[in-house]
Amino acid sequence: MKVVHDLRGVGENLQDHMDMFLIYDLTGPHSYDKYKKLHNQALAGLEYALFRSGPVASNICEGGLLWYGDEHDPLPNLQYHFLPGAGVEEGADQAPSGNGLTLNVYQTRPRSRGTVRLKSGDPAAAPLVDPNYLSDPYDAEVLAEGVRIGQETLAQNALSKFVRAPYRPGKILATKEERIRFVRETGQGALHPSGACRMGVDAMSVVDPTFRVHGIEGLRVADTSIMPKLVSGNTNAPSMMLGERLAHFIKTNARSAATPSATVDLGRYRGEKVES
Ligand SMILES: Cc1cc2nc3c(=O)[nH]c(=O)nc-3n(C[C@H](O)[C@H](O)[C@H](O)COP(=O)(O)OP(=O)(O)OC[C@H]3O[C@@H](n4cnc5c(N)ncnc54)[C@H](O)[C@@H]3O)c2cc1C
């Protein structure tokens, strides 16, 4: 297949959040796990049908927290989700007693970078995706600190009275080494792959600040792949925002004057009116 335009940055700069699951076994049916039983499901269904409330109206991720896994970082670099249930996501374990809870933690701004490469010249062939998680040791350290803070949080009186025992990991991890091992053995992608067609004006960028692919007329990209850096949170709403922004650029026929070797005043693109 003939190469139309060789952009070296395509497929570089892949980033994803790495997700850790801390799972706890509970002393009784305190969490949504009790709704795995059919009669409780029926009652929950009835409650929702009648009052539009109850567990069916929950998104399961009922609590969230942004916190610091590195005291030198001025911004929170850990995100937690509290889920009153266990085994609620693909690949996550159930609690042994059937009643559990999950605390998810991920690092918001990982330093590790992966790649997306072509396997062959066949455009229908699946690409080679290498997230390269934890290739920067800093990421494992921040996540290990996230595990430590998570375990400390679950040990507080307000929660510990509902907890029979930690299940995954099966004990309080006392040392940094143990926590890093846990991160490396059990961490999984948070399904926020981003950055492999990053926006910018340097030679390794793929799209310009108006989302146009450098060097190809009439082609724009608007999805998580154009993020130069992952956002410090989940990616769904930011992806929708990118789509909205693209619609605005197309409607106003916006064109960035920037080329891969030039600098650009990003402030120019923040206003509603963008010159074509
Ligand atoms: C299981 C899962 C759970 C998630 N949970 C959350 C969450 O709770 N909160 C959150 O904020 N984010 C969540 N995310 C992440 C979020 O969904 C994504 O970051 C976001 O949808 C990415 O948007 P996108 O436009 O980049 O890609 P996508 O949403 O993947 O859109 C790509 C689109 O392109 C289409 N497409 C692909 N190939 C072609 C082709 N050849 N021709 C035409 N169309 C094509 C696809 O069908 C798809 O519609 C989750 C992701 C997954 C996978």
How would you portray this structure in words?
- With 276 residues, the protein is an alpha+beta fold.
- It contains five helices and eight strands.
- The protein folds into two domains: 1-15 and 192-276, FAD/NAD(P)-binding domain, CATH 3.50.50.60; 18-30 and 60-112 and 130-189, 2-Layer Sandwich (Cholesterol Oxidase, domain 2).
- Helices cover 23% and strands 15% of the residues.
- The strands form two sheets. Strands 1, 2, 3, 4, 7 and 8 form a six-stranded antiparallel beta sheet that branches.
- Helix 2 packs across helix 4 (176-186).
- It is globular and about 60 Å long.
- Residues 261-276 have low confidence and may be disordered.
- Residues 191-192, 223-224, 234-237, 239 line the site of flavin-adenine dinucleotide.
List keywords for this structure.
276 residues; alpha+beta; FAD/NAD(P)-binding domain; Cholesterol Oxidase, domain 2; 2 domains; six-stranded antiparallel sheet; 5 helices; globular; binds flavin-adenine dinucleotide
